[in-house]
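Slides due. Your pick:
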Amino acid sequence: MVFDVLFGKIVFPALDSMVTRGCIVAAMKIRIGNFARIGQVTVQTLRHYDDMGLLKPIDVDTLTGYRYYTLDQLPRLHRVLALKDLGFSLEQVSRLLEDDLSPLELRGMLKLKQSELRQQVQEQLDRLERLEARLSMIEQENQLPPHEVIIKRVEPLRVVSLRRVIPSYWGEEPLWVELAKQIERAGIKTCEPSLSIYHAGEPEIDAEVCIAVPEDVIATRGISIHTLPEVETMASTIHKGPFTGFASAYADLLKWIDVNGYRVNGPDREVYLRLPEEDQYRSDPNALTEMQVPVIK
């Protein structure tokens, strides 16, 4: 490389020429394409940041519309990219870049994002556990599970209900008959769905039959109307077919709960999405029932 020594300093002629022309001087204007290359972003990204007020160009040519930036704007661009990399939305980045944001407010926003990211990581770990459990079940049984299970949130539900101890699950029908008579006598308006709740299992089955009612329905004498609580984590599976298949569906559901590291955390429910045809409870292949079990890790 050719260079000269001038006044005790090494001078690179080509570089000196560029500086003289102002091509790499921080205060000089740089066209948006060149600034994008330096910042390792796209031109479209810079235009979007401009529209949002995150990084405004130092100048815009009134004739051509070209946007110009300076090297002094690189630190702000890097801050935008760094905050975005932490998972903040561009709206949140804009808030974080405000000059009047106090250290306490900044710390609060960072703490909140930290909590969100930890929650996301935990959700991914839980998903990985479910995937590994599914693989294990398939490898052991060499087939897909007959009942798919999901974890869902169940909203509170206002119901009219009747609760009794019954000798067997097939002995539930008289409860439905009695509940229907109570509803008819009281003139209560009902809606979907209907469901059964089992507060205790065999040998003494503590069963509650329920039918949903509008929120404005109030209890009358001799009739139980109450709100079933919200369940944040409900293990759920769908059974299609007659009621005789419930035992198999419950077995698959409870196995999934155990394999995936959950435990039962409340009474199970049967939600009747599509009831069997009359007198076909043991045979209707088109009946649709959701089995629900509250769980906790």
Summary: The chain has three domains: 4-96, 103-144, 149-296.
